[in-house]
Amino acid sequence: MSEVLNNLKTRRSIRKYTDEPVTDEQISQIIEAGLYAASGMGRQSPIILAVTDRAVRDELAEMNAAVMHREGTDPFYGAPYVLVVLADKNVPTGIYDGSLALGNMMLAAHELGLGTCWIHRAKEVFNSKRGKEILKQAGVEGDYEGVGNLILGHPDTSVQPSAAPRKENRVFYIK
Ligand SMILES: Cc1cc2nc3c(=O)[nH]c(=O)nc-3n(C[C@H](O)[C@H](O)[C@H](O)COP(=O)(O)O)c2cc1C
């Protein structure tokens, strides 16, 4: 099997992390994979907010938990970093473009031996007043909608998630 196909099949969502730092070089490689994703009309519309600052990471986790009314929990599962993908609200394919960027980044991280998990509710978090302030603080201008939070770190290998069996009857052919 090709390395790409093997990576597609062996990537899992990681929900337990160690504190070991991820290097800037690795983070850049993962981001680059996101930037190289296909996009509608080649517009390259998604942007990525790379959060390596612990205090902001914790604040985003807190805001995310509040959206679910689960205050006091960590929806980022202890992952030290989060790469937020946001879509330009004025681009019709923005959410699709952002989703593909997230997929590329998940695979790139897996190839580097790192763990990720797509965490939802970026839309609500970055639609909030504080979310918009954080974007502004990072230098983001324009109207952006959160697509997904990609939490990132070194997987704690004491947990080995396995893939659920693939559901049947999801493929149809016209030959
Ligand atoms: C759009 C989307 C939203 C998701 N949101 C969450 C989430 O909020 N919390 C979480 O723990 N996992 C989340 N996941 C991860 C899925 O639960 C996971 O991909 C699924 O269970 C399949 O497992 P796998 O990624 O290991 O194949 C999300 C995945 C996607 C694609």
Q: How would you characterize the overall build of this protein?
A:
The chain is globular, with a radius of gyration of 17 Å. The chain has a four-stranded antiparallel sheet with strand order 1-2-4-3. The mean pLDDT is 97. The chain has helices at residues 3-10, 24-35, 54-67, 94-111, 122-127, 129-137, and strands spanning 47-51, 81-88, 115-119, 144-153. Helix 2 (24-35) runs antiparallel to helix 4 (94-111). The protein has 175 residues and is α+β, with helices and mostly antiparallel strands.
Summary keywords:
alpha+beta; single chain; 6 helices; four-stranded antiparallel beta sheet; NADH Oxidase
What is the secondary structure topology, with strand pairs?
Elements: H1 3-10, H2 24-35, E1 47-51, H3 54-67, E2 81-88, H4 94-111, E3 115-119, H5 122-127, H6 129-137, E4 144-153
Antiparallel strand pairs: 1-2, 2-4, 3-4
Bound molecules: flavin mononucleotide (FMN).
Flavin mononucleotide is lined by residues 12-13, 15, 117-120, 161, 163.
